[in-house]
């Protein structure tokens, strides 16, 4: 079963996602140098999973994943150069995204893989610690 994770992050990643959603027909482009990493996170089969879109990146050379005090940070750098007759063009930039790990995450057992432009980070979580119960609602009818 897949459960959406409760993400705790700052305002900037949401603004980047919002800005990137504008149609290009309006001529809007995000400011040069501001690049975000699109991520999705969820809990599945005892794992907290973070998937990040990182196409065209060499994960062994250009990506760093760190964890510090329940904060998982994915950082990447991209550089690209195109050379054609009488012209050349280059693009570069660095970007990062931080995601708060669940309180029951086992940081020492984090694993990461990269395939087809998607970085997947899997963090085991202790599902036995979760207690689910129904909360009764009291009504205060004062007649």
Helix content: under 10%
Number of strands: 8
Instruction: Give the termini separation.
Output: 46 Å
Outline the biggest β-sheet.
5 strands, antiparallel
Q: Per DSSP, what share of the residues sits in E-state strands of 2 or more residues? A: 35-45%
What's the SSE pattern?
A: EHEEHEEEEE
Q: How would you write the strand order of the largest sheet? A: 1-2-3-8-7
Structural class assignment: mainly beta
Average pLDDT rating: 79
Number of helices: 2
What is the CA-based Rg, rounded? Answer: 20 Å
Gross morphology: elongated
Q: Which residues sit in consecutive blocks of at least 5 with pLDDT less than 50?
A: 23-34
């Amino acid at each position: 079963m897949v459960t959406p994770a409760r993400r705790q992050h700052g305002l900037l990643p949401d603004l980047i996602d919002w800005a990137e959603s504008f149609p290009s027909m309006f001529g809007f482009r995000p400011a040069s140098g501001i690049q975000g990493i699109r991520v999705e996170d969820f809990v599945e089969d005892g794992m907290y999973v973070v998937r990040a879109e990182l196409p065209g990146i060499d994960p062994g050379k250009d990506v760093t994943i760190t964890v510090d005090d329940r904060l998982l940070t994915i950082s990447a750098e991209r550089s690209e150069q195109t050379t054609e007759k009488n012209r050349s063009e280059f693009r570069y930039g660095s970007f990062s995204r931080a995601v708060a790990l669940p309180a029951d995450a086992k940081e020492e057992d984090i694993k990461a893989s990269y395939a087809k432009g998607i970085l997947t980070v899997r963090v085991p979580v202790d599902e036995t610690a979760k207690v689910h119960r129904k909360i009764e609602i009291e009504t205060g009818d004062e007649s």
